[in-house]
Amino acid sequence: MTIDRRNLMTGAILAAALAGAGPAAAQDGDPLRVAMGDIASVESLNLLIAMERAEERGVPMELQYFNSEDVAVQAVLGGEAEIGVGAPYAFIQNSDAPIRMFYRMSTLLFFPVVNSEVYSGWADLDGEEVTVHSRGSGTEALMRLMEKKEGITFSNISYIPGSEVRAGAMLQGNVNASIVDAANFRLLQEEGGDKFMRLPVEGVNATDEALYASAEVLEARSDDIQVFVEELLGTWRDIEEDPSIVGELRDEYNLLPDLPDKAASAAVPYYEEAVENGVYPTDGGEPADVQDDIEFLATAGQVEGSAEDIEPTDFWDFGPLEAAKSSN
């Protein structure tokens, strides 16, 4: 599997997409290029393992890093990548883009955190700035939802990709209110003790990240994508059964070799906690999940409509998942 770090110009890709540019016809040996609007971290290891396993079955894979999820989705539209990572419900609804999600990778489990020396609860964030992952992300949706539920208004929402980057900014005192994943919440507790406090969140069940592709790619590369989905399902189930396999396979495939020792040692505990909390579903998604997502995102003000009124196929193509499951 190859890794390509790039920073593409948003306007150029969007212009190509709007002009009707699409993925070229696949040639034998062409990789499935996966666009990620973030840096790879411990929480990406399951995806990287599944990509390695797909390669072992003859499907070349290439991971591309972009500077935001917005740019990643435009890369998929412009044919710069075949597959994107994210949950672009709002983008699909607002643009009527011919892309569909096809695999539910993770559910939303994030920890709104504040510097307790500055804030003591949600009410204190009225008129204050908070920091999330990126525009349109699950982290933003969750904070927007809590803004409504708590009857407060943030002065501004700023965007810092990478949970570990946001945690670092909090440790350095540059950010006082943010949202991080389980691993980085644990880091804040270890490094800051009582200085960092988790704010309560209840009743949220939504997709954090999914894989998506254009309708053209889903049809033209259906065989390769089926293999990939089969390996995603198998990898998620293996981790569910024994989270320690993540550490073993990271070493076997030499994944993220530049991870600091401290981050690397946190990989297995992270997946143990994620499995315990149901972060990584083993079924790949189903139509009922789409309705839960729409209900959550509509409440957060990111999409319009109600769960009862939408058609799951307006956002998802369950064909690859059904094909992968039927082959097992």
Brief characterization of the structure:
The protein has 328 residues and is α/β, with parallel strands linked by helices. It has helices at 10-18, 45-56, 69-77, 89-95, 138-150, 163-171, 182-192, 215-220, 222-241, 245-253, 261-265, 267-276, 287-299, 319-327, and strands at 2-5, 32-36, 61-65, 83-86, 99-107, 111-115, 129-132, 156-159, 177-180, 196-198, 207-214.
What does this structure look like?
The structure is a single chain. Helix 2 (45-56) links the parallel strand 2 (32-36) and strand 3 (61-65). Helix 1 (10-18) packs parallel to helix 3, helix 2 (45-56) crosses helix 9 (222-241) and helix 9 packs across helix 14 (319-327). The chain has helices at 10-18, 45-56, 69-77, 89-95, 138-150, 163-171, 182-192, 215-220, 222-241, 245-253, 261-265, 267-276, 287-299, 319-327; strands spanning 2-5, 32-36, 61-65, 83-86, 99-107, 111-115, 129-132, 156-159, 177-180, 196-198, 207-214. It folds into two domains: 2-108 and 206-327, 3-Layer(aba) Sandwich (D-Maltodextrin-Binding Protein, domain 2), CATH 3.40.190.10; 111-198, Periplasmic binding protein-like II (D-Maltodextrin-Binding Protein, domain 2, 3-Layer(aba) Sandwich), CATH 3.40.190. The chain has 328 residues and is of the alpha/beta class. Helices cover 43% and strands 17% of the residues. This is NitT/TauT family transport system substrate-binding protein. Keywords: Signal. It is found in: Periplasm. InterPro entries: SsuA/THI5, TAT_signal.
